[in-house]
Amino acid sequence: MTSAGSGLSLAQTCVLSLLVFTGASQFALVGALAAGGNPFTAAAGAFFLGVRNAFYGLRLSQLLALPRAVRPFAAQWVIDETTVVALAQPTRRAARIGFTVTGLPLYVLWNLTTLLGALGAEAIGDTDAWGLDAAGPAVFLALLAPMLKTTRERAVAGIAIILGLALLPVLPAGVPVLVAAAAAPVVLWAEGRRKTDERRDGRRNDRQNDRQDGEQEAAR
Amino acid sequence: MNVWIAITVTAIGCYAVKLIGLLVPEGVLERPLVQRLAALLPVALLAALTAQQTFADGRLLILDARAAGLAAAAVALLLRAPFLLVVAVAVIVTAGVRAMTG
Fold this sequence. Notes:
The structure holds two protein chains of two kinds. Chain A is mainly alpha-helical. Chain A has helices at 10-20, 23-34, 39-50, 52-64, 71-75, 80-87, 92-124, 135-144, 151-167, 175-180, 183-198, 206-219. Chain A has two domains: 1-147, no CATH class; 150-220. Chain A is built from twelve helices and no strands. Chain B contains five helices and two strands, in the order αααββαα. Chain B has helices at residues 2-23, 26-29, 32-55, 65-78, 83-101; strands at 56-57, 60-61.
């Protein structure tokens, strides 16, 4: 797709899709290489965008409870889309099925369209003219919407948006999104403080102390 | 050759972080804080990614047809439109606004 237009060969484009398989990182890598960046800076930017998958894995691992031997294979499919679908399922069984039926077709289709896109990049012409650049954020928005159930999630989303946009011009590609992730521990920490204030006479139990320590660690 | 180096480094790095998330020991995950944090992190990441892909052009912030497309998608979501329709609305409105504004 985009990469064929920035000087990557057909083989390079396809290998990138097969092995990296996390869209934002692929685009970041291709963009940085096209702009003349050296391979390690380009890879670093792409890597930072991929770090969020570790957080997804954290969530998925408790949800799916996969056997240890399966994990290295499942890992490649730990991406935005599979996580959201798995999280939306009511039971563990449904979550496993959701993860698989999202992961497999996405992996196959993503790599097929990469091949087709690389072959036919010239033929399609300007994808922006068709508004296709809005499809990505629209997918994310549709995935995000059902998660915004309470004020807590809305606060996190709001802070993350502000951080993500405000830091975009000043930090290297991929880093602002990671900083925006800090919205989650910040909101939890603020909630914890408010609860503590409400029961200032009550003694704090160990669990709450524990929690606040963890929150401060995460916030750092 | 440089391109192959970049591809290799990225592939290894991106796979490693995916695997790390899955391999974190279960005991850590059972703590209530970790559970709540893990539930909120995708919210923060998705929100930031949505905003960036809507308003960013490289490292510049701009307001263009995509914003109209995403606003339309948000309306469709409020009306409980199905997933594919939401995405289609965003694409069509973006293309439409772009065609009108040249």
